[in-house]
Design goal:
The protein is mainly α. It has a domain of 76 residues. β1 and β2 form a beta hairpin.
Length: 125
Amino acid sequence: MNEKTFRIEDDLQRHRLQQFIGSRKLPFQVDLGDIREQRTIPQNSRLWALHQLAASATGYAPDELHELMLCKFFGTKEIEVAGIKRTVPLKRSSTREKSEFREFLDSVENFYASELGVWLGNEAA
């Protein structure tokens, strides 16, 4: 059976899930947790629009600035493979929940405004 994710928000949905689980052949695995609100597409679009503005101001690529901002906000660790060392961010933005991504986005936006003099208006993505 393929993996399935169920978002249960009321008693009817809970009852249907119980019926579904009751009809499955053993063995199977169930993972249960709180609902996670992943970052939104508009949040991500705004972040990359900011990186693009900062890239125009600095001459660095948006991807390079993104890595720098991840390191600044989430911290870093050093990895080594076959004698090559690199500093990388502790977390990636792609797996952040909506609220943590918002904090990261605000931090990037504030940094670019105060340090580079670039920002987006509220109407931007």
